[in-house]
Amino acid sequence: MSARAIPACLLLSGCMGTQSALAPAGDQARALFSLLGLMLWVAAAVYAVVIAGLGWALWRAWRRRGADARGEAALLRGTDAALTRALPLTAGAIVLGLTVLITGSFFADRAVFATRAGPALEVRVTGHQWWWRIQYRDPAGGGWIETANELHLPQGQTVRLVLGAADVIHSFWVPNVAGKLDMIPGRTNRLDVTARRPGWYRGQCAEFCGTQHAHMAFDVRVESPAAFRAWLAAQVAPAAPSAGRGAAVFQATCAACHAIRGAGAAGRAGPDLTHVAARRSLAAGTLAMTRGNLQGWIAQPQAIKPGTSMPQIPLTPADADAVAAYLATLR
Ligand code: HEC
Ligand SMILES: [Cu+2]
C-alpha cells in the first residue's frame, strides 16, 4: 500500500462508512452531526483565544528580553494587571460558550428523540442474545410478520421503531440514521427515525450484552417507498412449499426453534427463516449470505459464534447439504 493510500483508507473506512455518525443519512443523525459541529466550533474558539493569549504573553516577554530584575518585575506586574482586566471578559466568554452548548444540545436532543403523532409505519425490533427480531405489520391489515437482522426503511418517511429486549439490556444504534436508544427487558422504548439517503448501513448493538456482543450487528436498507413496498410484499408472502430432503430434515431438527411461514415450522427461539436467503448477511451481520456460509453456519454455529443459542446439531454431511440447499431457496 502506498503511503498516500493510508489516509485515504482511514477516511473511507471511518468517515464515509456504512457505520458512521459523520455521514448522516437521516434527520436525527443530521441533528447530532450539527451538534458535533457546534461543539467543535466552540472548542476551536476557546482554543484560539488561549493560544492568542499565550502568544501575546510570549511576545511581551520576548520584546523585553535582556531586561534587568526591575524590568522583569514590571513585566510580570503588567501581565498580571492585563489578566485581571481580562477577567470579566473571560468569565463572560465561558458563560456564553456554555450557554451556546447547552442550548444546542437541548435542541439536538429534542430533534433526535421527538416522537410525532402516529407515524404511518411501525416496526418492532427486539434484541436477543445475539440477534435482532424484526416485525412489520402486514399492509393488507393482517397481523405482524417476522424477519431478522435486516431493517428496511422507506426513504423520506418517518418510521416508529418500537424497541424491546427479550433477555438482557441491548442498545439499538444505526449511527448513519439516528442516535442510540437502549432496549430494556420489560419496557418498550420508541424511536422515530426519518431516513433520507438511500443505501446500505450497518447497525450495531451498543450495550455490552455477553460474549458475542460484537457479533450482534444488523443491516439497514434505506430505499425508495416503491422498493420498500415491493420488499415488504415479498416478506409477507409465505415460503413456497417444498417436499425435498432438506425440508424434511428442517422439519425434524430445526422447526422447534425456527419458523418458516407456509412450511409448517413455527419455532420462535431463533430468527424467522421464511425469506432467509433474501437477507444480506447471516447470524446478525457475522457472515455474508452465501450458500457456503449457510452450510458452514448450520454445521458449526458454535465455532463461528461461540456461545450462540443455536446448538451444534450432528447432521450427516448429506443432510447438512440438503438443509443448506433448501434454505438457499427461501428468497
Ligand atoms: C435450540 C434452538 C435452535 C435450533 C434447534 C436450531 N437453531 Fe438455528 N438459530 C437459533 C438461534 C438462537 C439463532 C441466532 C443465533 C445468532 O445469530 O446468535 C439461529 C440462527 C440460525 C440461522 C441464521 C439466521 C439469520 O438470519 O441470521 C440459520 C440459517 C439457522 N439458524 C438455521 C438452522 C438450521 C438449518 C437448524 C437445524 C439443522 C437450526 N438452525 C437449528 C436457534 C436454533
Ligand atoms: Cu450487545
Describe this structure in words.
The chain has 3 domains: 27-113; 121-236, Sandwich (Immunoglobulin-like), CATH 2.60.40.420; 245-328, Cupredoxins -  blue copper proteins (Immunoglobulin-like), CATH 2.60.40.420. 42% of the residues lie in helices and 20% in strands. The chain has helices spanning 5-15, 27-63, 69-113, 225-236, 245-253, 291-299, 301-304, 317-328; strands spanning 121-128, 131-137, 144-148, 150-154, 158-165, 170-172, 181-183, 189-194, 199-204, 217-223, 259-260, 265-266, 281-282, 287-288. The strands form 5 sheets. A 5-stranded mixed β-sheet has the order 3-2-1-5-8, covered by helices on one side. Strands 4-10-9 form a 3-stranded mixed β-sheet, with helices on one face. It has a two-stranded antiparallel sheet with strand order 6-7. Helix 5 packs across helix 8 (317-328) and helix 6 (291-299) crosses helix 8 (317-328). It is elongated. The mean pLDDT is 91. Bound molecules: heme C and copper (II) ion. Heme C is lined by residues 130-131, 148-149, 250, 253-254, 256-258, 269-271, 273, 276, 279, 282-284, 294, 297-298, 305, 308-311, 313, 323, 327. Copper (II) ion (CU) binds at residues 170, 205, 207-209, 213, 216.
